[in-house]
Write the structure tokens for this entry.
Amino acid sequence: MKRLAILGSTGSIGANTLEVVRESGGEFEVWSLAAGQNVDVLLGQVLEFRPSLVSLATPEAAELLERRLAPHHSGAHPQILHGPAGNLAAATADEVDIVVSAAVGVAGLAATYEAVRRGKRVALANKEVMVAAGDLVMAAAERSGAELLPVDSEHNGMHQCLRGAERRHEVRRLILTASGGPFRSTPAAELARVTPAQALRHPTWKMGRRITINSATLMNKGFEVIEACHLFGFRPDQVDVVIHPQSTVHAMIEFQDGSILAQLGVTDMKMPIQYALYYPQRQACPENRKLDWKTVRQWDFEPPDRDKFPALGLAYRALEMGGSAGCTLNAADEVAVAAFLAGRIGFSAMAGVVAGALSSVPVRRSASIAEVLEVDRESRACAEQILGRYEGQEDFVAGRATVVAESCNG
């Protein structure tokens, strides 16, 4: 039996992981759960899975869970912690074999890094870990021998494709697919006026709010390019993106001789989660998670429109800048997405906020997670300054943001 720590247990990936645990027939035990402030959902998870340790984001949420658990006398109550220290305890306990890193944002970064440092298997669903601190995390994995198994459908598919490449040097490039989001066919001139409600209607995946918005801008795919370079050791010019609206082909690799190997599957996150938990074995899945070849009609592929969706180019730019640029990219994007969801800026302005921060925050080499988090704070502050100066201007787009980037320079 493998013991799991699930960081971000009340989110989409966390809930799907627990469904895989239910299906496993006792092959996995939930040893710890970490969540934000959704006490209602976490309470149900605690009562069903009986973890030994639980962590929440705030002391208030931890106290509320304690009170809600009090009437339930059957079984031992878990140790209840909160904040970064609670996340760390959940992920690094000696009893934990596999850490599912699915916390949103940089909240799970320190705990995930420590789990890697201690040689645990990490089922990685948090892109921010690699985008903000990929160099540090990969160096720690090399030293400790930790296994990093990607849970994102695209990177999971890439991992499976690369298992079929006996000679890695024969792989010429990696190809990540993207659905194109809800605005794939929307004229560029109309994007400035789209609403958060429209942007949250993803055509193929059900995900959290931030990742759904980032899928609409293609920033999410940019994050995946950065993650792929770190995870698989390829250069940015060896990682391409192709739009595939049906989201059935998740990833491809192209060999030197032009042959292409692809990984296909239904749009269900339980498939990559199951792969990461059982690796290197493969486990049978229910029939509803298998492609029905009688209903497959057409698969389309097209290049992304980088002029219409500049966020993808910003991610490649951050890769070229190196160092802490990925951390700035992620932090500024988180600020920009929150501002868009709150109605402070338009859809097209999000890329402008990120471009401004990338142009303003100095790039440096972070030697520790503490230094990464300091860059994160500085980048968020810079993005907020840009927002404060240009909030409400519909024509605030990526090109203008780079011109006014000195707003962050003191």
Observations:
- The chain is about 45% helix and 15% strand.
